[in-house]
Every structure is written in C-alpha cells, then in structure tokens.
Amino acid sequence: MVSPVLDTPSGRVSGSLRGSGPDAVAVFRAVPVTTSSPFGDPEPAAPWPGVLDCTDSRERRALRGDGTVTVFAPADRADLAGASLPVIAWVHGGRYEEGHGDDGWYDGTTLARSGCIVVTLNYRKRFAGFLPLDTDDTDESDGTDGTDGPGSRGVADLRHALQWVQETVAGLGGDPDNVTLAGQSAGGGLVTALLADRRADLLFHRALVLSPGLPRISARTGWRVRRALARLFLRTPLTRTRLEALPARRRAA
C-alpha cells in the first residue's frame, strides 16, 4: 500500500502506514494548522509547496508544536472522499501548563482500526495561552475572553483546529457533521469553554468531558489573581508588546 497523502487547507502532506491489510492505519504527524506570535491571534498556517513530510518519524515528532494536529484514520479510506466515518477531536490535559496531543497515551490507532478518525488537537499553554493581557496603550485589561475564563488565545487555537477538522476530514472519509469533541483534565475544562463559545457552535456536534480541570473559585476572581501574580513575577505590564520582548525562557516559566 502506498504512503497516504492528505490535502489540507495549507497544502498536501504525506503520512505513514501502521500495519497492513484492512487493519492498516494512516498517521499524519504534526500537521501545521496555525501560526502566531507568542501572544498573537492564531492565523492559518502559511501555504507550502509540494508535499510536506508528516510521516511518523522521530524527526517529525521533534517538530511538534502548539499549532499542529496529528491524525489517525483507517488507511483503506484515507484517499476516499464522501464517506461518513465518525470523528473524535481530542484535547489533551496538563494543568493548562504542559502536555501535547502527540504524547503516546493519546495514540488513536486502536480507534482508527474500529472505523473512527481521531485528530489530536494542540493549543498554547501557560502565559502564552491563558494569561489575560493588558492593552498596549493602557495598563487596563483588554476585556477579551481571558478576563472571564481560560484565556482567549488557547481557546482560539482550538477553534482554529476544529475549523481545520471541518475542512479536512472529508478527504479521509470522515463526516464533518459527526464530530465529537473530547478532553480530559485541563482538556475537559477547555471543552466546557468551547461549549460556551458561540463561535464554536458549528465546529462540533457532541462533547465528552472527562475529569475536567476547573477552578475552585470563580473564573473572574481566579484570572484576576493570576494577572496579579504574573505582574509580580514578570515585573512588566502585561501587554503583548512587553511580553513578546521578554526572553523566551522567562515567558515560558
């Protein structure tokens, strides 16, 4: 069986095969979906020429990032459009601080062999994903989603990834009208945020929330405390310009 190829909104990618015959699974590793500055809004990944290598290799695993997804699909359907396989979009946990959808315990091979497409989603974490920012011209909050709950950038990354799923899964034989969004721990908390986000209304159709990581105090109070602690630790106004000027190691603390 030849190596699978998938058309994405930014270009074609090649994947790897696991197994053979009817149990073969196509894996597309670390497929670029979005790009952004550390504290900027996500944008679609820039188009690339030719076919991008997204095979299941050690080198590709090393390139995984917050703006990527990994896909597991039945190989005998991987080049067929118009089928109707159910889709699971998975959001990993990790205290909003760590983890990645490419981690081994989120491997979707078994589900793919049962006739399901699995897409593991990624998002920015820590300050880059969830710190409410000041505007660049005042020291006040910008009033975006981050003041009321998990910061808008991490949630926005997931919305863009879900839009990518809508635009791409038909090429794998998947049904874009049958997407289950699932997450565990912090991922479960982010699923609840997306359930409350009207901009995500048409991007998934049911949700599975497992052991959600939710604050024990009100979201508004919790994020106010986080802002105060971030100001104290970073010793700078929490504007996009100031934060992006900090050394990457300090931003990631």
Automatic annotation (TrEMBL):
Occurrences of domain Carboxylesterase type B (ranges): 3-212
- Region listing for Disordered, in residue ranges: 134-153
Tell me the superkingdom of the source: Bacteria
Name by which UniProt lists this protein:
Carboxylesterase type B domain-containing protein
Pfam families, sorted = COesterase
Residue ranges under compositional bias (Acidic residues)? Answer: 134-145
Q: InterPro entries annotated for this entry? A: AB_hydrolase_fold (IPR029058), CarbesteraseB (IPR002018), Type-B_Carboxylest/Lipase (IPR050309)
